[in-house]
Amino acid sequence: QVQLVESGGGLVQPGGSLRLSCASAAIIFTSSPMGWYRQAPGKQRELVATITSGGRTNYGDFVEDRFTISRDNAKNMVFLQMNSLKPGDTAVYYCNLVPATNYWGQGTQVTVSS
Predict the structure, then answer these.
(1) In the chain, which residue ranges form alpha helices assigned H by DSSP?
(2) How far apart are CA 33 and CA 39, in angstroms?
(3) pLDDT for 41-62, tens place per residue?
(4) Which of 8, 13, 44, 69 is most buried (most C-beta within 10 Å)?
């Protein structure tokens, strides 16, 4: 059973925007904090953004006010609006609970390149 499904990635030029979506099963989503993680080749997975069930958010230092995480509790979905993308944002992006469980989805590839 696929319980976390990420979508919305793609190829974008520097300065461009993407909106990522994550659909999760209720048993995973519940009322727990959710997060977006990313992993670039040769690098460790890092936390991009988090959001609590009440809508409180936190972001990694590298976000620099460029991204916005949001969630729809009724639909068990979490989103990541990414603006002003940089080549350094290139990675596979995943959603998961915070702290992360071992139930990872396939991720969605974000490539920022000219």
Answers:
(1) 26-29
(2) 20
(3) 999 999 999 999 889 999 999 9
(4) 69
